[in-house]
Write a structure and sequence with these properties.
Radius of gyration: 48 Å
Structural class: mainly alpha
Strand content: under 5%
Distance between the termini: 85 Å
Shape: elongated
Strand order of the largest sheet: 3-2-1-4
Helix content: over 70%
Number of strands: 4
């Protein structure tokens, strides 16, 4: 029989082949993991977890056999202690969960970290071989492998943690981060492409916190207590190398020893052969668990994460609470919530802003209603004979549209409709000036009470606000700017007495923009043409009658009397015809003309109220 040392020496080549295939599989699965389809995640976790579970269940079984060897008979206590169900379930769950986290972690590894990790293969085999040779002289042959694997699985991870850390410090590029949050953000950036699975993406966001803390600790080892630094860095590394040893250890378990996993718990040197019935039962159970429990549970968890946005929000809130955030106002660092206190102070100082703007808006509505009443007097003038002849004169002079605009402005300004609006707005501006002084004083007190002397390296700036924005609430400046926009830059002090003129000018410009005035001029030109034809016959008949009447006048004589009579009769007839035609034009066009003018007024009303409402919206915290 060959010595144990010779057998293990011969198995080195087989182990290296298996370990090399395992390394290649590990690398490529970590790159594909959660980048492509979701099924790769399910398959990768199954491939990774199987050897871990097998090796740990095997070691648990051999330890259980050793523990049962002290029983003299197979009584009730023996039967209870020989149950493996709970232990097997524990290691299966451990393998599934931990291998999932390992794959997420591997996705962020750089070349130095991969080399350090795969150096686990020779180190583990070396420790296992040494343990085998030491234990082979003392233990029974069938117990040597299990005890050597247990020793190697405990010692090797501790050695590899040291190797991994020093490899990164000596050969890796350890960035120096100013804050923990900066390190966490850099780790999150490495996981941004893990979008193939919602479960993996959310896990990666949480794992980025550990990686960020680890990288921050590596970059500032001199600033940390040594024990704290070692715990932070080594915790996750030990678990990864522990599982790596379990996977490699599964390659070193003799094939016959795997029968102990599925056969009865006995201490015989040679495990009993599995019956065909037991093989069928085990195969059926594994198939059922894999296809009808493992895969559906993984799929259900994936769908739950995708459909449950509350989980994502809770994770984000937990991240926010875990980070030591501060706020910055100008050059001052202040405690979290200070900006919110300033916004609250703004609302308290300007709590009457909405009320005063509502008063201005109410006065504006009344003013526009009063201006609407000026439309009919304008139309009364427009459809009068004197206005008709004056429009004809301006038409001949080429200034009809300008003349109509001036007359419309004149009539709309009657009564100074917006005088009360100007007074109300001026009062609101004065009120806000007083509130502004009170607000500035309050903000200075808030900043002073919440000031932080200096920014600690572990703190992160969450919100910023300029000092000007903090001391000057936007609502007051918005009121002044809106006054300038609405009233043409007159300023608050010049509003009263001129506001009606400014608003009227805007209404007239809208009427011009809608071609209302131009249309009126075009109508007048057409009417003049119609009058020329319509009055020709009437004027001729009137002149004949006037001439006959004039020739009968004594003294003047027949010729002069006829001329004078014709002129007078022609004028009377023309004026009469003009009046009749003007009445006809008024009947046909006045309602439409009035509607267009009122629409221009309503459009100006809408613009005015929209600008007032923009001031009110500035008072809310969201406006900042």
């Amino acid at each position: 029989m060959a010595a144990p040392e010779d057998r293990f020496s011969d198995s080195l080549y087989v182990f290296m082949v298996k370990a090399t295939l395992w390394a290649v599989c590990t690398y490529f699965l970590s790159q594909w993991f959660a980048v492509y389809s979701f099924w790769i995640v399910v398959l990768s976790v199954a491939i990774f977890s199987a050897p871990i579970a097998l090796e740990r269940i095997y070691l648990s079984t051999t330890a259980q056999i050793h523990g049962l060897s002290k029983f003299a008979s197979q009584g009730i206590l023996y039967r209870l202690m020989s149950r493996r169900f709970l232990r097997s379930v524990f290691w299966i769950l451990w393998a599934l969960v931990s291998s999932f986290f390992m794959l997420v972690q591997f996705h962020t590894y750089n070349s130095v970290e991969w080399i350090a990790f795969f150096s686990l293969i020779p180190v583990f085999y070396l420790v296992f071989t040494l343990a085998t040779r030491l234990l082979g002289r003392e233990l029974k042959e069938h117990l040597v492998t299990s005890y050597a694997l247990r020793w190697a699985g405990a010692v090797t991870p501790a050695l590899m943690v040291v190797v991994f850390i020093f490899a990164n410090l000596l050969f890796g590029s350890v960035d120096r981060y100013s804050t923990v949050q900066a390190a966490i953000d850099s780790q999150k950036a490495l996981m941004e492409n893990m979008a193939g699975s919602a479960v993996v993406y959310e896990t990666a966001q949480l794992l980025a916190w550990y990686n960020g803390v680890k990288q921050f600790a590596l970059s500032r080892l001199s600033e940390f207590h040594p024990t704290t630094a070692v715990i932070v860095i080594a915790l996750g590394l030990y678990i990864i190398f522990f599982n790596g040893c379990a996977m490699l250890g599964s390659f070193l378990i003799p094939a016959r020893e795997y029968r102990r996993l599925f056969g009865p718990v006995i201490s015989d040197a040679e495990p009993a052969q599995l019956t065909l019935g037991r093989v069928a039962l085990i195969s059926g159970v594994i198939t059922f668990v894999a296809l009808f429990i493992y895969v559906p549970l993984f799929a259900a968890l994936e769908m739950w994460i995708k459909q449950n946005s509350a989980w994502v929000e809770q994770r984000k809130r937990a991240e926010a609470k875990a980070t030591r955030f501060v706020e910055m106002i100008g050059c001052e660092y202040v405690t979290p919530g200070t900006i919110e206190k300033i916004q609250l102070a703004k609302l308290n100082a300007l709590k009457n802003a909405e009320m005063t703007m509502n008063e201005v808006e109410g006065e504006a509505d009344k003013a526009f209603d009063r201006m609407r009443l000026n439309v009919d007097p304008f139309l009364d003038w427009y459809y009068s004979l004197p206005a008709e002849y004056l429009r004809i004169g301006h038409l001949l002079a080429g200034s009809l549209e300008t003349y109509l605009e001036e007359k419309l402005v004149h009539y709309l300004q009657q009564g100074d409709a917006f005088a009360s609006v100007g007074r109300t707005l001026n009062a609101a501006l004065e009120q806000h000036k007083s509130a502004l002084e009170e607000y500035k004083k309050k903000v200075s007190e808030i900043i002073g009470a919440n000031r932080i002397a200096a920014l600690h390296p572990s703190m992160e700036i969450a919100r910023t606000m300029s000092l000007e924005a903090a001391l000057t609430p936007p609502i007051h400046q918005d009121m002044i700017n809106t006054t300038d926009r609405v009233f043409g830059g007159l300023g608050a002090g010049a509003v009263v007495g001129t506001i009606t003129a400014v608003i009227t000018g805007k209404i007239v410009s809208k009427a011009v923009g809608k071609a209302t005035i131009k249309k009126a001029a075009q109508v007048l030109a057409k009417v003049i043409g119609g009058k020329a034809v319509g009055t020709l016959g009437g004027a001729s008949a009137g002149a004949a009658i006037g001439a006959a009447a004039g020739s009968a006048v004594p003294v003047i004589g027949t010729a002069i009397g006829a001329a004078v009579g014709g002129i007078v009769a022609g004028l009377v007839t023309g004026v009469t015809v003009d009046k009749l035609l003007l009445m006809l034009e008024e009947a046909m066009n006045r309602d439409e003309f009035k509607k267009e003018l009122l629409n221009s007024i309503e459009s100006a009303r809408s613009d005015f109220k929209h600008k007032l409402q923009s001031i009110q919206s500035a008072a809310s915290p969201e406006a900042d």
